[in-house]
Each structure stands twice: as structure tokens, then as C-alpha cells.
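From the pipeline queue, job 12 of 40. The input is one protein chain; the requested action is below.

Action: predict structure.
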Amino acid sequence: MSKNHLLDVLSHKTVDRPAWVPFAGVHAGLIGGHSPKAVLTDATILTQALKDVHRLYQPDGMPVSFDLQLEAEMLGCELKYAPLGPPQVVSHPLQHDKEMPCECLMPDEASGRLSVVLQAMRTLRQDLGDTTALYGLVCGPLTLASHLRGTGIFIDMYDDMDYVKRLIAFCTRFIQRVASLYIDAGADVIAVVDPLVSQISTEHFISMLHTPYLDVFTTLREQNVYSSFFVCGDATRNIEAMCATGPDSISIDENINMTNAKKITDRHNIVLGGNIPLTTIMLHGSQQDNMKYVVDMVDGLDVNNKNLIVSPGCDMPYETPVENTIAIAQAVRQLDATRNALLNYQKIDEASEDIKIPDYDALEKPLLEVFTLDSATCAACTYMKAIADDAKKRYGNAIDVVEHKYTEKETIARCQKMGVKNLPSIYINGELRFASIIPSLDALCVEIDKVR
């Protein structure tokens, strides 16, 4: 493990191997038998859990917390804790009123669970700060705005852009304040995690987010810390626009082709991080599957050991086998030896023959299938599922709505059989209608009416 190794990568130096950053959020608690809620609410447990991560996974850098609901809770959103994942936002203070949050809500060290993260960060800085870089993760302004406004923000993007921009401006100031507190506590890298960037058009990104993000990354550079722009889902269309905001690095998940993304980030001399699949590889794969993915990814990129961070595609599932993550660390550190050991290894794909696909032509009413990573833990998936639920409320028993979670092996096989390529997505009677774009309720209803 080497903090300086990661910092060299972020400084665009040529190194002897890629950097390694495991996004072990609530998964950190698994090692010591602690629940996700305990990890996110108790500074002592969080600190020990991260020391376990440090001991077993030998990271060059690691996040102190991976909780995109932290800021939302401080701003009045109610949370529901998942048994095996981070909490989910279940109420939206601005859902019915287009108001602006009060500036008096700007956070300080004692705000909400922020104090838990800051206490853990200070301890880890003192105990591990010379060997491992610490990431402070903040919720991106668009996702935070959606937590406050709910699904209504997707209508606002078309009906009241001025309000959206003002709300995003407030959220930007809020997360900049959180970032400053993290920096004071010892963070080396600030990662802005905005899953909903993958759910909007490039035109909306440039209109709503270019200026706020440019300001965020400029300010972080002035504070002498490195930055990361973290997006989940298929944000392929927005990678170029993300680069134009000037982050030091961009992190992506398995929905984005790593090779194509690297071509874009290299043009801007930006470090690329990712994109080990969370479920098919890390959660349900073998040690060999994990090692081979890393070797194949690095070999396919032909990066010459520059501008690359190997990491999970997003926050690791709580139940990710410890041995799989250890295998990844081994592969990153000993690429040549791992490559030779796996010369004759082939992954056994999940069988999809036993999965029964509905006879869509024989259905008596429209069937909405929402394919998600898990709507209880993935922000973009949460709002995609929420739109489908809103449609269910409007149509009642005239339609059916089901969710297929990619964290379940059956869904992986179903996706293979149906050719589902992007998460989250909405299929209606077996036909793809929305992929990585959260529709407005009216737009979804138009598609439903076509098959009624």
C-alpha cells in the first residue's frame, strides 16, 4: 500500500502499476461483523472497520465513508436503513413546495452524522495517513437536489430550469462546505459522487452542472487536494462534458466501456478509475473471476501504467466475499504473476436457460419491469423505481410493476436472456423504453398508453 503511489498517479506520473482504491463503504463492516447502520452511525466502529479494510485489502487510497444520504439527512430528508446496504431517502422536504433551503442549514462539524465521519477521518489520518490516502466523499449537487425535491426535479428540468439552477447552486455551496470540513480533518482526495449525471442529457449537464462543477474542482485545487468526479450508470454521453469541468480523476462503473472512456480522459490528461462489476464479478464471482477481470482490463487499456486507478464500479455490496477483494489487490500488485497463473482460466457464465420470460403478447395489462442494481441502495435506481411507482399510483390495477434487482443471481440471468445492457432501465411488455434516463411521469405514461 502506498499513499504516495496514488498521489503520483493523480499527478500523472508514470508508475510501475495502477493505483488500487477499494470503495468499501458499508462492506467495511462485514469484516468485523458490524451492520451497515453501525458503520454509518458509530465513529469507533467505522474507524475499526476501515482499519480492517486497510489490513486486508492493502489500498493505496480508500473512502472514509460512502453514504450519499449523509447531506440529505442534514437537510431534512428522512432515511430508511437497509439491512445490508446504506440508507435510502424516503422523504423529500421540497416535494410539494418550490422553496429554497435556508442558508442557516449550512453544516458545521456537529451537523448530523457528519461528526461520525470527521472523527473517524482524524483518527485514520493520525494512524494510517502516511501510508494510505483518505477520500472524503460528498453527494453531487444534482443527486442532492433530487433528494430534496424528489422525482419532481425531472419535470422541473423542462418546466422551471431557473428553479433547478438555484437549487443546484445551493446544493453546490452545501457540499463545498462539507468538503472543506473533510479537508480540515485530513482528506487527501475529495470525490463528488453524482449518480444522476448518468440519467440526464448532455444538454442538461452543460446547462445545469458545468459551471457548478467547474467551481467545485477549481476550489478544491486551490485547497491543495485532489478531486474525483464519480458517476454511476451509463454516463457515456456525458464523459466529455465531465472532463470539461476539470477534475483530477473520473470514476465510472461497468455500464461504461472503459477503453472508450480512457480515450476521452487521456485527451484531457485526467485519471480514470473503475470499473470492476459489483455483482457479476465481486459479489457472485470467484477469486479467479476477479483477478482475471483486473488483468484483462489493464491489458486491454494498454495504459503504460499512467492515469489509471483500479477500483470497484461503485460502493461495494455489503456481502462481497473478502477473499474476492483480496484477490483484486493481489492482481493489481502482481499483474505479471497473476496473468501467468490465469492463462488457461475461463469464467463460467451464469445459466439463463431456466429463467422464464413472460409471454408478453398474452398479458392482459401492461407490465413495467424496472431493472436496477437495487433501488434500496442505488440513487439513480431509487428514482427510476419511484417513477414506475408513481405510474402505478396513477393507473392502479390497470398495470403491473415489478423490480428486478441485479444483486440477485436470477436477475443477472434474466438480463442475459433479455439482453438488458443498462441499469437502471424500464421495459414495458418486454420492450426497452427508458435506459439510463429517468423519464418524467407524463413521458412514462405516454409509453404505457401505447400498449393499453
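Job complete. The chain has two domains: 3-341, 360-449.
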